[in-house]
Design goal:
2 domains, alpha/beta, elongated, about 475 residues
Amino acid sequence: MNNLNEILGIMKKNVEAKNKTAIEENTKELMELLVFSMFPKGNSNSESVEIFGHMLMMISRKIDYTLMAPMGVMLKDTYYNLAVNPLFLINYTESEIKAILIHEMYHIIFNHLKRSKNLDRGIIHDYINIAMDCSINQYITGLPKDCVTLKYVEKLCGHNLLEKQEYEYYLENLIQSKAYQKDKQMQSKMNELLNELKDAIDDYNNGGSGQSKSGKSIKDILDEMEKNGIKISSHDSWDKCDENDLNNIEKIAKDFINKAIDKCSGRGNIPGVIIEKINAMGKKTEISWQKEFKYLIGNIKIPYKRTFTRPNRRLPERTDISGRMMDRTLKLAVAIDTSGSMGEKDLEFVFNEIFGIIKSVKYELNIIECDTKVNRVYEVKNRKDVKTEVTGRGGTSFTPVFEYIHHTRSLRNDLDLLIYFTDGYGESHIDEAYKPRGYNVMWVITENKENLSVNNPFTNKIKTLHVHE
């Protein structure tokens, strides 16, 4: 059996000789060896990539010489397919191709195939591609130097950005950037090079040497694209996805990823972000948080800003009209009952609602874990800061949370709302000395709001999470 570098060398010679039968054999062998290298026995790297090997084992692979990228994933007849273009592959190293394979699997994990369809609202499409690639490439090592990085997006935006955010965050910053506003010149150069790339690919497929009309090879054009800061998109293959499949993609993706997880040698070999994504798939919050915030904050006027990342509420079909999102930063405290009576399912529902809060508004958020005492308090700046492994697991007392806020000026000052997640079983009375002053309270009970034991909850806003139905 040849090693990977030898196969790539042979592939280059067969591409030059236009021996497509040999190219297809080389590509098949290359893909098989790369996938095998992701399993524990074949993987000398300590990085957890086993799950990607299992995902790729379940994907049908085919060669597509017309694809304008080395690879592209698509969904057809409820099955994922991976298109591969050898004309691009030969320009990358073994480790780079492996990273590109992982990149394509992350698009499935992050549900980008569906989310890009929902979002294409008159935005320059290349910026959607850049934002999506930025959101996943931060989890991957060894990518080619022409791939999108956080530094590249920061350069386009002209300022620093948060790490490992959802792609909507990067897109919102990109469309507000000067680069986006002055993009016509860049678009013209991009279109020129992409047309040359298509010409070179067509020339090869029609029996030529693989050159554009101006005499440039595929590698020459890729080098010029890199020099001009233009990134290749593998997302064009998404246009070939079946519409019916996209309507059911969350279930298809969840089943697909769960099968790969079941085949892994242990959950310790699965990156945490994948567990987080699979837990969130198909789950919607029970509570409409934007509606609740509007009600609970009371008469405070909440400003909104225009954004193309959300549809216009009155005219959702008009992609040329922007939607709006809340532009006021809410100062929130979320208390979690971490007593022994709060089961794993209760906590799973609680964290799903917390993730919903994070997605709904601009926020300053502190999470307070409490059983009979406050065990841990921490600030949340983004989703990855949320600690799903809680501390405590003793009895239940609600008073310590109100006491903690009362004595912690930095938290109490300008606090808008305390949201308390609990099963409701605690003391009957909270010390009035710690009665909220200047902030509102909302209780969320994980089974039945009638279970809330306190007779002075400081609010009439008590909601139920239907955990055990």
